[in-house]
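Give me structure tokens for this 280-residue protein.
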Amino acid sequence: MKLSIITLTYNHIKYTKKFIDSLYKYTKDFELIVVDNGSTDGTVEYLKKLETELDIKLILNKENLGFSKGNNQGIEIAQGEYIGFLNNDILLYPNWFEECEKVFEREKCAFAGPRHINPHFDSTNEKDYIKFFKRTFNYKTSYEKNFDECVFSCVLTKRAVLDGIGFFDENYSPAFFEDNDIKYRAILAGYGVYVVNTVCFYHFGSITSASLDHRLERNRNYYYSKYPFAEYLSVSGRDRDIYKRIAEDMRRFPFNFMYKCFIILRKIRNRIYKILRAKK
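Here you go.
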């Protein structure tokens, strides 16, 4: 098996059906692993039907275990050389896998994903997103290193990469920053993270996460307590090289421990301020 696709579902069956149609239209020779995180809107019944008709692999959780845990469950049973993490609220583009695969053949690549089209930011809709991409975007290179633009709504990796850097950190619950964490670990291990400029995917956006208490600030603090200089991956040019050298130096110094102490002290300070204001 060359390619395993892992998709999480949590209600919103309408978008899941659109995704499944797009996946089978634009992807060849793959196994589909769907992890349902406790849907109650008919999604489970629909997936059980697909399990019979399309021979998908189905994992049914009784409750929402989050993005990291769900994907890790899928990884455990995936048989493909390549593993794709694809949201259930996206639409794909012709030859998306083949174009992403080229990066792995040419570079030491950990993750590669198509360009991201989001109706919140781009003037298009699901009916004409393919024409919109062809008409609007003309990049100088077929792919490029880009930490931010390689998003985990649709991303490809290899089993060998995950075996080396580890799976998703399940301390990020239920969602957000787990993708940055695993990308950063890949970079520390010497891999590149890429966005592919020749293909795209259409993302309806925040269909599932909008209904969740995703604990964004808690996850953000946890991420930067692990990797204090990770934010500088978004910097380009000469500054990126400078910050990269700084980050490499700091890894030889117990700065992560210092940052954790800073977070604790800040929480204590805020608690004291809150008590003093209450007394007034």
